[in-house]
Amino acid sequence: MARKIEIHQVDAFTRTRFTGNPAGVVLNADGLADAEMLAIARELNNADTAFILQPDGPEHDMRARFFTPRAEVGFVGHATVAAHYVLSHAGGSARRRQRSRAGIVDIEVRGDGEDRRIAVRQSCPPIGRELNDRERLAVLDALALASDDLDTRCPLKIVGAAGTRLMVGVRGPEQLKNLKPDFTRLTTLSAQVGAAGYFVFTLAAHVEGCLTESRMFCPALGIPEDPVSGNAHGLLGAYLAHHELIAREGPRTSFSGAQGHYVGRPGRVDVELELRDRSIDGVWIIGQAVSIFQTELTL
Fold first, then answer.
1. HSE, side-chain direction, 13 A CA sphere, residue 7
2. Do residues 102 and 144 share a domain?
């Protein structure tokens, strides 16, 4: 029997088409086999595609599976934003609980119409170890950075659990612009230092309304440069709070980060931190999205 699935192409963390981070969204995907999901993701050829399925337990409202063109991954922030932007077109609940291989996250749709924002809550990521001098120099050399290019307030630390990123703070946008990553060396270093990617950021952003500006390289995951990463901005929020580089404003504090300008896909991620005393209870990754196209596929 023929089956029909609904496919959307969405740009996340932007309201301008052909910017931000593109993702595929496949609705009513329950009847698809793993091989079919992988084949569809490969055909769409986005960095990530989200497949939306019915819940299989009482503790969540829906399920999502995420595929790159090469493999299934546990969770993808921009594809989650894209998926819930599509789902919110039909109205319904402004709050959902989504289960994926990485666990359950809470989703809120904030606002109405085309300017609505999708907010994704995750638990606070762990702050990992600081690189030793040998590792630090190797990473800097692979990024074409000198020690003088670094922001001295920002130690090179690994942040995250399942999806780890090395936080590299630089003095300004000029350092971001001049990066010349050696992807082969960065891939090798990922295995050696235990970081799947490298999030290079500055606290001297030249983008209006943004505290940070950044670039991210994940060649070990098959992504030379990620246009706009929601997950990494959540990790950055925890890192900045840990090192007291962001103002604390009562039970919540927030900032915005710009990314994607150097690959022609500028976007913006808003981050909110839930604070309790000196700890972080949760991290919200928030973004807008815009639809590129919708189609139907018969299998």
1. 18
2. no
